[in-house]
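tool_call predict_complex ligand=zinc ion
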Amino acid sequence: MSEVEVVEEVLPLKQSGDVVANGNGYRGGNNGVIGVSHDENLRNDVYTAAAYGDLEKLQRLVEYEGCSLAETDGLGYYALQWAALNNRTAAAQYIIEHGGDVHATDHNGQTALHWSAVRGAIQVAELLLQEDAAVDAADINGYQIAHVAAQYGQTAFLYHVVSKWNADPDVPDNDGRSPLHWAAYKGFADCIRLLLFLDAHRGRQDKEGCTPLHWAAIRSNLEACTVLVQAGKKEDLMVTDNGGLTPEQLASDKNHREVAIFLGNARRLFKKGCDGNNNFGQLSKLRLSPVLWCSSLLLMVTYIQSVLMAPYLPRLTAGFGLLAWSGVFLASAGLVLFYRCSRKDPGYIRMNVHDLQNMKDDEPLLKIERNNPALLAGNWSQLCVTCKIVRPLRAKHCSTCNRCVDQFDHHCPWVSNCIGKKNKWDFFLFLVLEVSAMLITGGVTITRILTDPMAPSSFLQWMNHAGIHHISAISFLIVDFLLFFGVATLTAVQASQGCRWSIQKPI
Ligand SMILES: [Zn+2]
Ligand SMILES: [Zn+2]
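tool_result ok
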């Protein structure tokens, strides 16, 4: 694969005395060097002036020396292209006003707009498009600006031209490769996120039968593979190219161990998920809340029967009785909160997927908010490629619920729900209530057993007596004790995260 070939870099202006040295170099090194070599003075032509945005010189050359802006330099490139490549908006404006043509193409079929995409020169691109440059201009390889932007990882540029000028983010080039192929090949993960968010076709096969995932695997771009697999389905991993190879096989053929292992694991995980076998991925999908509910109720009944109303124990005094029953009250209140927590929306963020179908062809990208501050700031990781939304800073995608959850904490299989913005305080309070209830009921149980008036004084006999008369109270105590440590740990973790929540630190 070879990307669009334009100038790779124009060295920054080198001031030496009052002389500006020119260092324009061509990409790939096979195209020679424009202008003069490093030790000579700046060349006196409109192309160099355009590349450096030297408006004064440009005006002098055009207005006094009669240089043309509609002709190419020795290598076949236009002054407007040089200005576009280097984001020289004023120079580009001047060139357009004095005979430069926004539609002009060089011998590669590239326009100034193509060149503006190389380094993501948004201002110049904006000017060119306002001057009626064709947003869908394709060069001899079939590359449009979206391809060029993807080849050079210019995500912000891509976002701008797609959202404002409706550039096609999923158009294939002459080899059938879309911008997503290029971003995967080059390993630009943010660009991949944006393209997937824009509904680029993950499974598109180029003339060699390769999908973007094939190219990411061939080039050993692990992060690109990760983003593509996370957004994808099992079938993406099984697609074979014209040689009959899947991305995983290609990666291992090329000795990209890390990528091959990752893709292999992903394939096994997908497979197990489909078969419904018990594995780690399935564990989090279990809905354990009814189990927890019933066991808690059972514990409570045991406590009431074998501790509070035990036939062999004296009746409770009023004060002690109040304390003993408060344990039951706290546990019940906790269970109510637990129920709320498991039923409540944890803070799901509305998906944008359904809007997609209703969109009209002439407004393909109304769904991206053009001025979304997160995207303008370049926070591409806030794009959820599954939900097709720009999520808030502390939101995360829950793979179990397959939704984005605001202030996502974790997916709790016991609650059978995510813990997020809307139920985190219910969850925390539930934990606090249960811990208090366990402390009280545990304490009450120990006191009741130890103060049994019928208990014999010798230890062995006492053990025997307790084993006969207090067996269920002792069982309750053991379970209560074990649960206490589990829940207390959770509460401590949750409390430390409570601090995190309140200082609003992003996850
Ligand atoms: Zn999501
Ligand atoms: Zn979840």
